[in-house]
Amino acid sequence: MPLPLVPLPAHVIERPNPDVRIDAATTISGDADTAVLLQSLLEQRTGIRVPIGSVGTVDLRLDDTAAPESYRLDVGNGGIRLSGDAAGLSYGVHTLIQLVQGDADGWRVPSVEIADEPRFAYRGVMLDVARHFFDVTTVRAFIDRAASLKYNHLHLHLSDDQGWRLELHSRPELTARASQTAAGGAAGGFYTQEQYGEIVAYAASRHMTVVPEFDMPGHTHAVTLAYPEITAQPVLSDHIRDVAAAYGGGLPEHGTPYTGMAVGFSSLRTRDAAATTFVRDVFTEVATLTPGPYLHFGGDEALGTDPADFADFVAEVSHEIAALGKTPIAWHEAGAAPGLAPGTIGQYWNFIMPTVGSDERARAFVANGGRLVLSPADAIYLDMKPTADARLGLTWANGPTSVERAYRWEPSDVIAGITDADIFGVEAPLWTETVTDLADIDALVFPRIAAAAEAAWSPATGTLPDRTWDSFRARVGGLGALWTSAGIRFPASEEIVWTT
């Protein structure tokens, strides 16, 4: 049985040395921030509050010469030694916690030697807080769940047709008029600037960077409620009418809150000078609130925007963001625009086998000096139903997405001509049309979030003996007790070999 390590480390050597016990005599020493994290996680897992001192059974050493986000873990000879840069130490702690096992005599850690570092620099999860709003406590819990699997970016989808979720002093009507509704008629909400700062700071404490997204020129019906003069009338298609008939919510009407699930009908008036000013105000203020280097401007499913107007608009927005000293990110449709700011990052959300044109748009970002974040919808969109009879989720991305399908894909194989050097990373999005609270998040996210984490962190499929589906389903099954102790209400997928 392989050790329950997810994502799979780059190098693992199991040794015949005696296990190291975790008991009342255990102590922690070394880097103060990492020691506090380990103390908390050990208590959560074992019930033992291990003291922090100057000399420890577990020694945590900051190594400024280590490769970014890398760590080395050595368990044996009565002690545990962990070293790495600041982020690597944190990731190494989560690896160590996965190794903690219970037996008749208490708690133990098997003797191993691990040397580990990530495959991709960007390892992201996305939380859609626009379709349904989640308070700061829930977002913090989501951050903790993601950090435990070595994710390092939190993409917050802060605006959509159903609501606007961040207070902006330059545009107060957005939260005054466009924040109180959500999908399905649920209550809305928004983050004050202080609350947003709290999320950013908490993410940073877990070595995660917040990537805020304000989607445009489509997905902007909520803006209609605050600034109707800069938004166009909804463009209604037969598809939108079919979605409304199937899921409810009615058809969108200009100036009226929208709580349905259809997409592609809304648009800013992209050639209106007032809309340009609006965009500049939004991103200028968000840039001052966001210490991270990225601003995401959407650019997807703008079916209500003339293609030529769309191309000019997304190019202009990318340059506005670049002028603020930030790197623009956009969904892959924006690759159709020839004038994007050099270095703009594209986020690919089409399928593992691209539909016509989506791969060409994705490659355009690379040709423009940027790179790609891969989020193939039929593999790692976490809001897809895991099984046909699941209570939550949707099925539009090639039907229900099993854990096995979430695992069995290779980032460098998705788009012809794209190699690891062109891939910035992997991101697993959670859209929330059917998700209302943390229990719903857990029910859809786990265990598929672990499969996406392995695609983002671990060496390529087949390069290691345990980088296989059969190994993964056993390894992730060994995390059930750990996840339970962390309060994660994960579904016991029948695809996984669960152990206690």
From TrEMBL:
The UniProt keyword set, sorted, is: Glycosidase, Hydrolase
- Write the signal peptide boundaries: none
On whether Thylakoid is a keyword of this UniProt record, the answer is no
A family per Pfam: Glyco_hydro_20
- Which top-rank group of organisms is this from? Bacteria
Determine if Nucleotidyltransferase is one of this entry's keywords: no
List residues of the Beta-hexosaminidase bacterial type N-terminal domain: 5-116
* InterPro entries assigned to the protein according to its UniProt record, in alphabetical order: Beta_hexosaminidase_sua/sub (IPR025705), GH (IPR017853), Glyco_hydro_20_cat (IPR015883), Hex-like_dom2 (IPR029018), HEX_bac_N (IPR015882)
Q: What is its EC number?
A: 3.2.1.52
Could you tell me which residue ranges the Glycoside hydrolase family 20 catalytic domain spans?
Answer: 120-302, 311-459
> Reaction(s) catalyzed by this protein?
Hydrolysis of terminal non-reducing N-acetyl-D-hexosamine residues in N-acetyl-beta-D-hexosaminides
| Similarity remark | Belongs to the glycosyl hydrolase 20 family.
Q: What is this protein called?
A: beta-N-acetylhexosaminidase
